[in-house]
Amino acid sequence: MSSGVIIILVGAAVIVVAAVVLGTFLTHRDGGLRRRFGPEYERTVAQHNGDTKAAEKELDERVRRHGGIRTRPPTAEEQGRYTAEWTRIQEEFVDSPPRAVADAEALLGRLARERGFPDRDSEEHLAALSVHHPHHMDSYRRIRGVAQGSHERAPDTEELRETLVRAHDFFAALIGERRQRDAGRVKGRTGRHASRAGLRRGVVKGSAS
Questions:
Q1: Of 92 and 27, the one with more pLDDT
Q2: What is the pTM of this model?
Q3: Helices 157-174 and 201-208 sit at what angle, rounded to 10 degrees?
Q4: Which of 14, 112, 126, 162 is deepest in the core (most CB within 10 A)?
């Protein structure tokens, strides 16, 4: 076998190996983005009409811009103050569900800013939060949409109640409460908060009648 043929074969082998290594790298990277962002990954892909490369480029850019944010954990005193304010909002829900949801959305925005994220009126607000709290973005976007009146129709009382209850998990994450991994325990804990503040379904329906 001539030296020229050997060189060609070696070159081809190097190209194949490089392609395999690159493919493995991209697969791990893409899998890492999917695991990191969860539902936010799927949402971004849908926004790009199924173009995963474009979606992953956007998510990579978000991580580059905001991955280094060092959030300031709230003190015990601040936790107590925030919790008291959230409880007041839940109690407010009985008399005025729309106002309670709007106040909760404003509290979440203020709390995020005080933790070190961009202001809620900044274009980078949601992008930064999606890097550090991707699994709470659906509930946060929902309460923002309701509070800002961006839905086609006004939500009814039960939808407002569900919006507020779901947003509590994001609130708990922002103030540093221990994350409950068991879904049943989370549901039970949010249910206790709701009961204490008059957010149980029966009470809400009674207040709305």
A1: 92
A2: 0.70
A3: 130
A4: 112
